[in-house]
Amino acid sequence: MIMRRRQQGVALMIVLLVVTIATVLSVSIAKNQHRAISSATRYFDRAQAYYYATGGEEYARQLLARDFKERPEQDDLSEAWAATDLAFEFASGEVDIVIQDLQSVFNLNDFISSNEGNSLIAEKLSLLSSQIGLNPSWMDELLDFSDIDGEVRPGGAEDYFYLGLERPYRTSGQPLQDLSEIRLLRTMTDEAYGRLSEVMTVLPTAGGALNVNTAPPMVLQTLATDLNLESATSLAESRLRVDGFESVEQFLQQPELAGLAVKPAGLGVQSSFFKVNT
User: Fold this and answer.
1) Which of 56, 90, 97, 271 has its CA 20 to 30 A from that of 123?
2) Is residue 115 predicted with pLDDT exceeding 60?
3) Rounded Cα distance, 266 and 128, in Å
4) Where are the alpha helices (DSSP H) in the chain?
5) What integer is the mean pLDDT of 163-182?
């Protein structure tokens, strides 16, 4: 009788052990399935977001291609690509699109295209730096950072300075590939970079014209020392009323520029480089 009870107790323990193991395995399988489903869902969502974003890019490309076909000689903010409400909807949301004319701001590779920097754009960048409260010495630093010689300009710095930092690095010795590279300059701060990034860009080629039809007032203000921000804003508003200037000559005939002797060199009314944010 006692032996039978012992056997029953052992059998009960075995049954409980089997149930426990089965429960643990079931929970483990359920967790693994949940992780697999979550991972697949996240992958699907990322892939879907990527294709929606590339769809926005393609939509922007078609807008710009159509614009070039209809008005190849002129780009301005009255055109379809410059609209502030570009978007397309889908089942669970929408894609917003912003197209920025990269020739509406200064191309820093124009400045560093020659060893001493282009004198006209150097004058404009110096004036712009003063307007936004920056010391123009960063321009010497940029030229030293991008050239291949070891000569230090009055406000610049070469390899010996950057190699002495806690985290050393060398100067690039080539044109900029991305605007963020100027954050490596000796005196560049996050605040200064934030200000410059609003009015600067980096294009793969030098020599492109600044589009006066899309340039913001702060950039237009650099065209002449005596041109104040109020007049530059008036210029920006007047171009909207005429759907953009058809030529640089028409732009220079505006009353806000009378007597300022603005040079037409480096100015244009058409753009070839754009940035699309989706």
Assistant:
1) 271
2) no
3) 16
4) 2-70, 108-111, 119-131, 137-146, 159-162, 190-196, 217-220, 229-241, 248-252
5) 93
The tally of CA atoms less than 13 A away on the side-chain side of residue 84 is 1
Q: In this structure, how many other beta carbons lie within 10 angstroms of the beta carbon of residue 209?
A: 18
pLDDT surpassing 80 at residue 12: no
CA nearest neighbour of 269 among 210, 226, 220:
210
Does the pLDDT value for residue 263 go beyond 90?
Answer: no
Cα 73 to Cα 24, 69, 99: the distances in Å are 72, 10, 19
Mean predicted confidence (pLDDT) in 122-133: 88
Determine the Cα angle at 277 with ends 276 and 278, to 5°.
115
CA dihedral 76, 242, 210, 261 (to 10 degrees): 180
The answer for residues whose C-beta is within 8 angstroms of residue 48's C-beta and 6 or more apart is none
pTM: 0.79
Q: How far apart are CA 270 and CA 237, in angstroms?
A: 18
**Are the CB atoms for 231 and 256 separated by under 8 Å?**
yes
Identify any residues that bridge with 274 across adjacent strands, giving them in sequence order.
101
pLDDT of residue 49: 87
- Tokens for 51, please give them: 């294709």
pLDDT digits (tens, 9 = 90+) for 60-86: 999 999 999 999 999 999 999 999 899
